[in-house]
Amino acid sequence: TPTPKFLKSLPKIELHMHIEGSLEPELMFSLAQRNGIDLPYDSVDALRQAYDFSNLQSFLDLYYQGANVLQTEQDFVDLAMAYLGRCQQQNVRHVEIFFDPQTHTERGIAFETVINGLHRGFMQGKKQYGISFELILCFLRHLSEDSALNTLEQAQPFRDKITGVGLDSSELGHPPEKFERAFAAARAQGYRLVAHAGEEGPADYIWQALQLLQVERIDHGVACTEDPALVQYLVEQRIPLTICPNSNVRLRVFDTMADHNLRELLDAGLKVTLNSDDPAYFGGYMLENYQNVQNALSLTQAQWMQLTANAIDASFASDGRKAALY
Ligand code: ADE
Ligand code: ZN
């Protein structure tokens, strides 16, 4: 049966990680000091104690507040490098990173500050650690479609640095259909497409993401088991689901890890991958997700190998890079 050493040694591929969600309290405090920003917490410990969430929105409120300390290009470089240091320790070999430009442009930080900092940080990590990466721009779904279209225009000069477009933030009340034109525009520009769907929202939002937005991966998607026809479609079309176990428990999508539907998803033959979502807020990175899943759900070695193969298949890496990851 899979040992802790086995889990640690597995080559890992992360496909669902928001870079703003990798901002650890220690780095948040040091960037706040560097940039002369006041945080509404007395200490790192007090901040960590606030990370007790009741749903997605209660997390997002703190996540957007935390992102205010990110001001300069160097801040984004440091954020990327801190995350990659964790990846290196956990044998993560390839990462596909979400970033939320509107979180920054809405408070006066230039789009180019964000993308240039992140790109420089991940290029440095690639050189230093051999960890390959792709960047995925996410639209904030609580904002308007016009704001998303405007963000896509701002991304145009940096098209070669951005692999894909996604959709995140408050799901309920902001169905995929709201972004049909923005995703059509992104598709016309050749971006790979993904969307968060079926995290807190219903199975119908997953259908909308597939049929209206034409995404090729679903982020979360745990609600699919409410709809057997949808599960069958996802299996037949081999649509990957980027599952985030610790996140789902911390945001109360499931009461405990033992209640998570991961095994049901695997048994249905879905192309499941495991990911950390917002590791600084949800109690850990890839390995901590693997460990918590294993402790609660006791997967077999074959299932762990399947999850690894699924992530390589589902990635947006080049065919050459995928072959090297196997
Ligand atoms: N932004 C960061 N993490 C998110 C999540 N789990 N769901 C939706 N939006 C997010
Ligand atoms: Zn997410």
UniProtKB/TrEMBL annotation:
Ranges of residues in domain Adenosine deaminase: 11-326
One GO biological process term: nucleotide metabolic process
Reactions this protein catalyses: adenine + H2O + H(+) = hypoxanthine + NH4(+)
Catalytic machinery residues: 199
Key words, A-Z: Hydrolase, Metal-binding, Nucleotide metabolism, Zinc
Record GO cellular component, one term: cytosol
NCBIfam families according to UniProt: aden_deam, PRK09358.1-6
Name this polypeptide is given: Adenine deaminase
